[in-house]
Amino acid sequence: MNRPNLWSERKEILFEDNHLLVINKPAGLLVQGDATGDEPLSAKAEEYLRFKYKKPGAAFVGVAHRIDRPVSGIVILAKTSKALSRLNEMFRDNKIHKTYWALTGKCPEPTSGHLTHWLVKDPIRNTTKAYPERHGQGLKSDLDFQVLGQAGNRWLIQVNPITGRPHQIRVQLSTGLGTPIVGDVKYGFLSPLPDVSIALHARQLQLQHPVTKEEMVFVAPLPEMPHWEAAQAYY
User: What is the CATH number of domain 13-234?
Assistant: First the structure.
């Protein structure tokens, strides 16, 4: 079996044990398969595990959460059904602390605070609309944000989502602060990035291991892309 052309330890693979596989996902890669038929992260992970452990059949890969295709950063995959079940419960109960880094074209005002919106997803257009007050079937969505500083001609914002709604950070920064994420033309930025990613990175996850109960913190290095280069100073 030829080694698959994916992932190296300490670069894409941030952690692995008997129950978890933690990946620093590159922008542009789906986490789970969709109608496009493009190979997702979950399929690449199965290929990696089959190769590494010389499995004759399929390897178990459970998807407990997702980040958007144009977003980079941490994704935790489950290698056992026990881990998947417990991760699903932890994400549902907001017991996993998530930290994202985002680049915006201007500094938000205020420079730190809390945002609450009710989000309504349009599945046809694959967009989400944010309302400042309770709205129909909208889901209450909360996040905290803080400006870390200027990164070149952009501003680096740390975001801690408390809930986990589709496109939550993207639409809340754009609607609530008037600062769409760099490259995110879907939510108001004027021009795309050359690689069609957006400057949003799932930087850190803090959680209790679903099986061993050990306290764990995973940190994903920023992509080696020009638009992130100035943000490296904030490590």
Answer: 3.30.2350.10
